[in-house]
Each structure stands twice: as structure tokens, then as C-alpha cells.
Amino acid sequence: MELLQLRYFKAVAENENLTQTANQLYISPPSLSSTISRLEKELGTELFDRQGNRLHLNARGYVFLEHVNQMLASLDNAVSELRDMEAQRDILLSVATTSPNVWIELFSSFQLEHPEIRVTHTSLRLDELQNPGCLYKYDFVIASPTDVPAHWKHSELLYSDDSPVLLVHPDHPLSKRRQISLTEVKDEPFVALTPGFSSRKYFDDLCERAGFTPHIAIECDYMMRSYMVMKKIGVALATAYTNYARLYDGTCCIDITEPVFPRVQALFRDEKRYMNAAAAKFQDFACSFYPGHSCRKRYPL
User: Fold this and answer.
1) What is the 3-state secondary structure (H, E, C) of the chain?
2) pLDDT tens for residues 116-172?
């Protein structure tokens, strides 16, 4: 059964006149009649009651027409959607990240410079990175190389010097310190992200390198973390990039000098996925956004 047969059947069913329909379709009446007959033969039943050039749908024809209309409508909608996507292909950008709060400045700055590009951002948990086809699904995935599957190859290294910091309440005894070793706060209650996120993994790895298991007072999302610190629930770990982007205003930030464990972030993409103009612009913008890979150059104290 061919798509053309179904469209011819629909046209005849609506007109109920073989000659008139053939003229509208720019084919000969015998050719149209032959097409309808082949369709009926394939279905094993007649769809029309015939009276000369007049064809009237029978009960079986009405049932078949209902399904044909649904199928052709769905197909036409799909074609329209694909055409719309093709027309907008160069202004659509899809980016996934594992630590969304890190990239607020990058995305907002890019959108202000390129308002014509429609950006879709997705936040990914670590287990989602392991799904087959995850990388191909997006124009880019921004993540730490230690979090992604081994076969992923980064297209650009965005930065490799994002250092850990400790967030404390302004009334905390350590609030006047500028530097600290993480082991000095091993007995403090911590405000931590929920497991499964890249930043939580970084927190766990950092504490392990410091040689202690943290006492976690509360697990919460990114937005609640600084709020909980300001409510004196506990201290929290973040990184210099997020702090200098003013995401934790109100808290006091202390540089962690030990252990030395800089956070690395890279831009990953599947080379088999088409890179449209929007993706090319974003890659150039992201790489130039972190010149010299130094957060202190980008966000001076």
C-alpha cells in the first residue's frame, strides 16, 4: 500500500466522482480507477459502490476513510513541524549542563549578545549522562571530564582552575578568615546538595581527599543552599566561579587551600550531530568567555 494510493482514495471519497477527481489530480480517469482498484484488492474488500462515474463510499469505505484521515493529518503535521524546524535550525540551541548555577553568567551574557537565538537549557543528573544517545540529544553538554563516560571527547576546555570555597554565615567564628584548610571544619554541620548531582559528587570527593566523612545537616537544591547557610543550619561548599558570579550574596566566602582540587569544566559535543550556526556561535562565545581560564580575571575581588 502506497501513500499516493491513500491520497487518491481520500480525494475520490470526498468528491464521489471519478472523472472530476482525476481532472483535479491531473491524471487520467482510467489511471485513477486502476489505483483505487489495486487498493481495494490489497485490502481484500470493496470500498465504494459504483454507479458509472459516480462512486459512493460503502460502510467499509467510511471506516477506512476515518483511519486514512487520521493518518494523513498526523503525517502532514509531522511534515509541517519538520519544515518549521528546518526554517529555524540556525536559531535553535540546545545545551545541557550538570551544574546549572555555574553557567548563569555565561547563558545570560550569550542571550544578551544573541537575542535572535532561542536557547533551551537542560539540567542533567549524573546517571543521565550514561544513557545511550545522551550526547547526541544536545548541541552541547557542559560537564566535568570526570563525570562523563570514558568515550566522550571534549571539543573545548572551558576552564580548569575553579577552586573550592567555604560558605559561612557572617556571624560564624571563621567568617573573617580568607583561607582555610578543609580539615579545620570537619566537625561542622554541612548544607549539601542531594546525591546524584555533579556538584554533590565534587563535594564528596573533596571531603574524601581531606580525609573525613562530613556531617550533613540537610540536603537541598542549589537555590536553598545559601539560604540554609544564612539560617545558620550549617556551612557549605561551593566554587570560586559561582561565588564571584554573586550567587551567594550575604554569606562569607573563604578560599579552601587544602586539599588542592580544582574543578574542571569542558564543552562536549557529538561530532555526528550537525552543528548549526547557533551552536557555532555559542562554542566561540563560551570559549572566549573564560580567557586564560581564570575566574579571578573574570570576577575580580
Assistant:
1) CCHHHHHHHHHHHHHCEHHHHHHHHCCCHHHHHHHHHHHHHHHCCCCEEEECCEEEECHHHHHHHHHHHHHHHHHHHHHHHHHHHHHCHHHEEEEEECCHHHHHHHHHHHHHHCCCCEEEEEECCHHHHHCCCHHHHCCEEEECCCCCCCCCCEEEEEEEEECEEEEECCCCCCCCCCEEEHHHHCCCEEEEECCCCHHHHHHHHHHHHHCCCCEEEEEECHHHHHHHHHCCCCEEEEEHHHHHCCCCCCCEEEEEEECCCCEEEEEECCCCCCCCHHHHHHHHHHHHHCHHHCHHHHCCC
2) 999 999 999 999 999 888 999 999 999 999 999 988 887 789 988 889 999 999 999
